[in-house]
Amino acid sequence: MQPILKINLSTQAFEDYQIPDEWQRDYLGAASLAARILYADLTADLDPLSPESPLLILTGPLTGTAGPAVGRFVVAGKSPATRLWAESNVGGFFGVELRKAGYDGIWLTGESASPSYLWLNDGKPELRAADHLMGQDTYEIQTSLQTETGSKSTKILSIGIAGENKVAFAGLFCDHGRAAGRTGLGAVMGSRNLKAIAVRGTGAIPLARPDEFKGLRSGANRTLKTDPMTSVLSDLGSAGAADYLDYLGEMPKKYFSAGALEGADKVSGSSVAETILVGKKACHACVIACGRVVNIGDGEKRKGPEYETLVGFGPNLGLTDAVFATRMGELCDRYGMDVISASGTLGLAYSLFEQGIISTKDTDGLSLNWGNAESAETLLHQMARREGFGALLADGALALGKHFGVAEQAVQVNGLELAYHDPRGASGMALVYATSPRGACHNQSDYFLADIGQVDESLGLEYFDRYAGAEKAANVALHQDWRTIGNALVLCHFANVPPETVLDLVNAACGLDLDLDGLMLAGERAWNLKRRINLNLGLVGADDHLPDPILQPLPDGGAEGYVIPFDEMLAAYYTARSWDENGVPLPEKLEELGLVDL
Amino acid sequence: MSAVFPSLEWLQELEKKLNSDEKYAQIAKNWEGDMLCQLDADDRLDKQMLLYIDLWHGKCRAVAMWDEIGEKKPAFILKASYTNFLRVLQGDLDPMQAMLTRKLGVQGNMAVMMRNVPTVLDFVRCAREVTDEAL
């Protein structure tokens, strides 16, 4: 592996950190390896926004290679939103450029005395003043720093105004709207007075066995092109299955209180394709190209909305306007805010307004009736700037709920708002959200796809009915382990690459000789390592929960009346994981995974 | 004895069913597009079979057994092994699941297919109700 560039922003000292070989073998890269590297530094009393709190940007062994779908990298640390393990991975081209610049990661500690940005030019790091960049959004800064560094090939990872203001769901953004959005790590970067990282690299991406890898990746890309999910994602984007998810009652409406909404079909990938789509956009070396390019009537070509954006700023708020969702998605991107948490927190505010728990007296006169787009837009601006009623929303749904004495109504787990895949339509997501190491997350396992049949039998996965309960717990754990590997490589979850091919690619890229069991063990090891980190940070078994609204049946729609048998599912999950009744890994499991002496 | 799937007789029974089913007529009232079901040979089917079905606004306009795919391509071509088609027909495999999970390939406008989930599911219901007889 290439070294990690370690930077103390307080002293402006740089050093190369060499990753131990056995750590790469055991954890592979990115999110998993980041957990191993940061394990000792993440303590319960560590303030995530203090200079002592680390922020690690890390690529995986497949990042920047020729595919398939491997442009991603991860940002990791301690979350200011959850105060637990934080990881968020993102596509685009920054991670590729970082590896070409001679580093597999950047490890930030300390705090810059004044606003600064890091310029990493082919292995040569330099901290530069960034006073003139403060207040710029994540789109504007792309142009500014490409001009300042003299190359349009410079790749920039930055925070927006939300990160500067330490909004709890601020993210790090690159390539005009590619977001490491979840868990609030943009606030961590903002707290260090670091506005951006600009990278330019001309080196080669290291591969242990390049000839072997070349043949494998060609075949993998050919296979991927013929996959039906590739067709759906390429033709219709990440919202390609939205119509079906709506039919199943898996698409939330009115902040998870309804299963049906007239006009919900207007926010599907099909609808976008038929109305505003003018092109597609791909991350590095991706044959899928799920990114949308749209024209919303102003003649501009802009980033189109993803599924989470369409639903979060659509049916979640009682709205069905893809153009509005597009605009709000871009606002979030420019401000540097996570669309799921931002729209989820708005959804709670709308729900509280409907119930009369808050009124226009609380909202500075804003009416938050379902379907009110204007208020949502106003509040987005306020959230990023921590102004007005929006300042209350800037700390997320749980904080908002606590403020009004109704924390139980916040649809979140451990401080992270649920993604828009309702577990009442796909019960496996109940366990995924409750046990995810970073709070309610659909990228630790997109089990909703397994619940509609996307199971790879070579991994030992089985298909269970979407309403099945405890019997699917072991399957969920296995799926989480598999996706943990994806988050380590980093392989986009949208790339439906056969596991045997992934294994071959990993072995060729890393010079390993793992079998499929060994690969899966790496996933299980990392899952349990992150569990240990969270236990160290104060997590207890009772935190593996679902919010009250999700435990109630939906009144209508495709999942009407279904109640998740959550307690039985969680008990079975603990058993499947070899965790005790408090959710603590048993000593023999830690022994098996090599996690006893860390 | 009812028609055996897959056969011309089965297609003709399906045509009658689709043209007499009020629920299908209502759900599929906006559907436009013919389709070809390509049943690939497997251990239960000796050779590939091509079943043509022309669907238009809640009605079935024509059915046929094709020997090959000619120059005039239907709006949709659905490809799967005979066994997987049979699993869909017998209710063991959800057709939308099949489309999204490598079990049933689709050539055609995916936007139309995804937008018309209820139509797809009700078409399969009608096909299922034609017969229990299969090769």
Helix-strand blueprint:
The complex is a heterodimer of chains A (598) and B (135).
Chain A lengths: L3 E5 L4 E5 L3 H7 L2 H9 L16 E5 L13 E6 L6 E6 L3 H7 L4 E5 L6 E6 L2 E6 L10 H10 L5 E4 L2 H4 L7 E3 L3 E3 L4 H7 L2 E7 L9 H16 L2 H9 L5 H6 L21 H7 L1 E5 L9 E4 L7 E2 L3 H6 L9 H14 L3 H17 L17 H13 L4 H4 L3 H7 L8 E2 L2 E2 L10 H8 L11 H4 L22 H17 L9 H12 L5 H21 L11 H4 L14 H12 L9 H7 L5
Parallel strand pairs in A: 1-6, 7-12
Antiparallel strand pairs in A: 1-2, 3-4, 3-6, 4-5, 7-8, 9-10, 9-12, 10-11, 13-14, 14-15, 16-17
Chain B lengths: L7 H13 L1 H6 L4 E9 L8 E8 L2 E8 L9 E6 H8 L5 H6 L4 E3 L2 H6 L1 H14 L5
Helix pairs in contact in B: 1-6
Model description:
The complex is a heterodimer of chains A (598) and B (135). Chain A is built from 24 helices and 17 strands. Chain A has 598 residues and is of the alpha+beta class. In chain A, the strands form four sheets. Chain A has a six-stranded mixed beta sheet with strand order 2-1-6-3-4-5, with helices on both faces. A six-stranded mixed beta sheet of chain A has the order 8-7-12-9-10-11. In chain A, helix 12 (322-335) runs parallel beside helix 14 (373-385). The longest helix of chain A is centred in the C-terminal third of the chain and has 21 residues, at 516-536. The model of chain A has no long low-confidence stretch (mean pLDDT 97). Chain B has 135 residues and is an alpha+beta fold. Chain B has a single domain, classed as Nonspecific Lipid-transfer Protein, Chain A (2-Layer Sandwich). Chain B has helices at 8-20, 22-27, 82-89, 95-100, 110-115, 117-130, and strands spanning 32-40, 49-56, 59-66, 76-81, 105-107. In chain B, strands 3-2-1-4-5 form a five-stranded mixed beta sheet. In chain B, helix 1 (8-20) crosses helix 6 (117-130). The longest helix of chain B is centred in the last third of the chain and has 14 residues, at 117-130. The model of chain B has no long low-confidence stretch (mean pLDDT 92). Chains A and B meet through helix 8, helix 9 and helix 10 of A and helix 4 and helix 5 of B.
